[in-house]
Amino acid sequence: MATLRQDRIRKGLNITLFLAPVIVLFVLFFLFPLFFTAQTSLMKWKGIGEMEFIGLKNFERMFGDDTFQLALKNNLIWALASGFIQVPLALLVALILNRKPKGWGALRTIFFLPNVISAVAIAMMWTQIYNPGHGLLNTILAPFFPQLAQFHWLGDVSTSLGAVIAQSVIYIGYFMIILMAAATNIPDELYEAAQLDGATSWQQEWKITIPMLRGTLVTAATLAMAYGIRHFEATFLMTGGGPAHSTTTMGIILYQQMDELQYGRAGAVAIILIAFGTGMIVLLRALFGNKDPMSDASQ
Amino acid sequence: MKQTTGSQKIPGFLLKWTVLSLFLILTLMPFLWLLISSLKTTFEIESGGFSFPASLQFINYVNAVSIANLPLLFTNSVLVAVLAVALNVAVGSLAAFVLAREQFPGRDFLYVALTAGILIPIISFLVPYFILITRIGLYNNLISLILIYAAVNIPVTVFLITSFMKAIPKEMEEAAVMDGCTFSTRFWRIILPLAQSGLATAGTFCFIYAWNEFILAMLFTSSESTRTVQLGIRFFQSQFQTDYGPMFAAIMLSILPTVAVYVFMHNKIISGLTAGAVKG
């Protein structure tokens, strides 16, 4: 009996030791930041001295601010573009590659490639592609639209947001992989039966693949929209939110508030970001009964 | 009958390859343009276009290495990425072992809590991370980046390694327990070797993240001696303003490590994403 008890204590000790490092990292870099952000969002605080409790004033101030409203609108455009342009394009490519045409494996590998390249390199590359003088885009367009030869895509308020969003289409490989993986789970018998009934490829995709992928499509679109809400890096690197705030996003505003030592307001923006960016996914999971938080593994 | 399927197949075939070619061009053209531009003179770049250089300007790469002090930047980035991966995979596999192979109260809750970290936009933690790093005296110290990169990737790593360790058959362990194997021997000698593939997948994701990360590195370091590659090429954008050739060369060199990792590990990356997708 004594040894059994000793065994249990030893096992408990072992489990605790194995979990201790992960819990330390998790508390320091997830739990503490979460509580700290929630706390500062209700405070007036500039990083030094006492925090002063001001209730929801930071939130009122942000929602009442013209630039923040613009950021919210831009994030919404980002979210819609990601969910309803990126994901359908990814679906189109996934459907084609799922039929295993010649070289499909290599194409799948290449289409995912931009996802492993740093945002800094990609942003610098696109800044050059959009360059009004020697950029690739204007060089291609100039013969057809001579009036665009010197057009500054990122510098003009009418095109800046579109230009930053348009380059994000190179990231569809991520959603393509998720959709291709889900499509391999569709039983072959469904297609065999459809073929016997004389259904064409397009009819099979339309009547079998797409309906069977519905759940994954909803997940992919939700993830894409959540990424649209969080969007920060490419904009920060390509335009910094300008010109005239035309490309600003909530992430950019968070950074700017932090830069001005407005930690309370930065906290409020962070809470709004978490509420929208995380709440959307949690809501979807609740609706579709999927409790596993992990349906993506990168970014 | 044959005729109709034949005539239906030709437009389908055309459409299919048009879509694939368009995406292939869209994906690869920016990189090709970058590569070609990195071998041009600045004058050739400024005259624009997709033309090939009159002679290949490998000197751009030599200049990039010296102007941007690439050896130092690469040393810093390799140090940060490798140590972050080591810490992340070590901590993650210890936890994953217990989560996958032991019964204890609160296990499922802990697993969900750890993996739910993936849902948090890290950008919303800029202020608390900054406060934490300055308070523990790690500002402008690469250790801060190693800690944060390792921690930020914990949700993905715990998810991946736990699912690999769960897949190992019980019998593999039972024989060892019979032989009087201790808790830690089971981990080191049996489970860890069998979960190698999971460790490699998790490590690959962490490496790519750590190599590419920019905003935290920008906020938490301030001197030239602690600059990472991403910061270096970003800062030298201003220095290269009138000298595009070396700038393109520096960008090319900065993406080589992740491209190399991708070339060797793309199957693991794709299967790692697939593991997540099938569950989700």
Describe what this molecule looks like in 3D.
The complex is a heterodimer of chains A (299) and B (280). By secondary structure, chain A is mostly helical. Chain A has a domain at 67-117 and 151-288: Orthogonal Bundle (MetI-like fold), CATH 1.10.3720.10. Chain A is built from 14 helices and two strands; from the N terminus they run H-E-E-H-H-H-H-H-H-H-H-H-H-H-H-H. Chain A has helices at residues 2-40, 57-64, 66-98, 104-112, 119-129, 136-141, 160-167, 173-183, 188-196, 201-212, 214-230, 233-238, 250-259, 263-288; strands at residues 43-44, 52-53. Chain A has a two-stranded antiparallel sheet. Chain A is flat, with a radius of gyration of 24 Å. Residues 291-299 of chain A have low confidence and may be disordered. By secondary structure, chain B is mostly helical. Chain B is globular and about 75 Å long. Chain B starts with a helix and ends with a helix. At the A-B interface, helix 1, helix 3, helix 4, helix 5 and helix 6 of A face helix 1, helix 4, helix 5, helix 6 and helix 7 of B.
Pair with the biggest interface: A-B, 99 and 101 residues
Strand order of the largest sheet of chain A: 1-2
How many discrete structural domains of chain B?
2
Q: Spans of chain A with pLDDT under 50 lasting ≥5 residues?
A: 291-299
What is the arithmetic mean of pLDDT of chain A? 89
CATH architecture grouping of the largest domain in chain B: Orthogonal Bundle
CATH superfamily assignment of the largest domain in chain B? Answer: MetI-like
CATH class of the largest domain in chain B: Mainly Alpha
> For the CA atoms, what is the radius of gyration of chain B?
24 Å
CATH topology of the domain at 67-117 and 151-288 in chain A: MetI-like fold
Q: Helical segment tally of chain B?
A: 14
Determine the mean pLDDT of chain B. Answer: 88
Q: What's the main sheet of chain A like?
A: 2 strands, antiparallel
- Estimated helix fraction of chain A: 55-70%
